[in-house]
Amino acid sequence: MYRYFISIIFCFVVVSTFSQEPTKKIEEKNDSIVYTSPYGIRLGIDISKPIKAAIDGDYNTGLEIIADYRISKRFFIAAELGFEDETTQEDYSNSTAKGSYIRLGFNYNAYENWLDMNNEIFVGLRYGFSVFDQTLNSYSPNVNNPYFPTTPINTPVTTSLNSHWTEFMFGLKVETFKNFFIGASFSYKVLLNVKEPDNFKTLYSPGFNRIFESGTGFGFNYTLSYLIPFKKK
Amino acid sequence: MKKTIVTLLLLLMIIWSCTKDDFCTQSPVTPNLILRFYDDINRGDLKSTSGLYVWAENKDTIFINQATDSLVIPLNTASNQTIYNLSEGNVVNQFTINYTIRNEFVSRSCGFKSIYENVTFSSSSTWITDFTPTTLTSIENQNSAHVQIFH
To answer: B93 has which bridge partners?
Structure first.
């Protein structure tokens, strides 16, 4: 099912990339003006997390600050720093993960801008690290027979945990006003290492989101960011 | 075009957050108690009950008019004691199980399993003449019968 969705996204990318190219070549032939693009540090926030916190009852709070720094025509050093508090409700358990994370890596802009446009369709790689507390709020034993009703055990147990992962990102950034960007990205995460609590499991890690059985995760962000230009090249 | 992609990604996010990736296929997670009925004289031979009624103390009947040599009954995870009444031919035999409970994590979807430890059995010895064993260190699974009942 996921592969199917992912494939759809990739189809769209191919379409939009190809549609721009012929126009650009014509421009280059007829014009001798050299267009420069700004280099600098770009700072922003992920607005999808506060929205998610407002509409999704299990997602308590979330904040993510994003930053990137352009080092060459196509490469950007990128980082995300965030905090999340999420409650995982399962059939037989209820747990809360709360903590901070950092993701470091780079983006490669695969989009060929024309004229002085400054947009991006990028792919990126990240290393992620998170330090958090997971609290098992309550659980009830899984008894298949309804003859004896079970009573939930409400003694919260908190464990300090951490996790490391790698992440493949795919997204876009569009300059809507001068130096102001709207972006969206999707990420696929592969868990490298996670500390598991005693007699329970790490079900959610801030920055990684839900840890699926296979040790993978998915992420999404929708960002507003502002570029502080240092120079033009 | 870009707006379409953004909308699509947002929609995907909503779909993803709702999907369930694993289902509990283990059954049962918490083990039941298995009683096996044997003949009192030829102790190697199974002997079926006739018209057996089973109910836990202060509970509704769980089995009605059973003719079986094997009985699978749940234990109360909310208590350290379960008292079963086994009635055959209007003669009630009380069978008491005492234990401590340890809850062990199995998986996200299966949750926690109760393991019964330091199990002791006692009987009011009416139609059940004997049983073995009287103690068990733990009941962790349903691979084999836990108690042999002689009648």
So the answer is: B86
Asked whether the beta carbons of B85 and B94 are under 8 A apart, the reply is: yes
Determine the residue of chain A that is closest to B4 in CA distance. A12
Q: What is the DSSP string of A140-208?
A: -B--S-TTS----B---EEEEEEEEEEEEEEEEEEEEETTEEEEEEEEEEEEEEEPPPTTS---EETTT
Question: Which single residue is written with the structure tokens 């008894």?
Answer: A143
Contact A142 B29 (CB under 8 A): yes
In tens digits, chain B (151 residues) has pLDDT values of 666 776 776 666 666 655 566 788 887 889 999 999 999 888 888 888 888 899 988 888 888 888 888 889 999 988 899 999 988 888 888 999 999 999 999 998 889 999 999 999 998 888 888 888 888 899 988 888 899 989 8
Inspect the interface and report whether the beta carbons of B75 and A48 lie closer than 8 Å.
no
Helix (H) or strand (E) holding A209: strand A209-210
Are the beta carbons of A148 and B77 separated by less than 8 Å? Answer: yes
Q: In a 10 Å sphere around its CB, with 0-12 CB exposed, 13-18 middle and 19+ buried, how is residue A72 labelled?
A: exposed
Asked if A203 has any chain B CB less than 8 Å from its own CB, the reply is yes
Q: Between β-strands A75-89 and B33-38, what pairing exists: parallel, antiparallel or unpaired?
A: unpaired
- Amino acid type, B80: N
Q: Do A140 and B30 touch (CB under 8 A)?
A: no
ipTM above 0.85, yes or no: no
Percent helix, strand, coil in chain B, to 5, is: 10, 50, 40
Q: Which of B4, B103, B108 sits opposite A203 (nearest CB)?
A: B108
Nearest beta carbon to residue B111 from set A13, A139, A222: A139
DSSP letter string, B63-120? EEEE--SEEEE---TTSSEEEEEEEETTEEEEEEEEEEEEEEEEETTTEEEEEEEEEE
Q: Which CATH architecture has domain A2-232?
A: Beta Barrel (2.40)
**What are the structure tokens assigned to B83, written together?**
């008292």
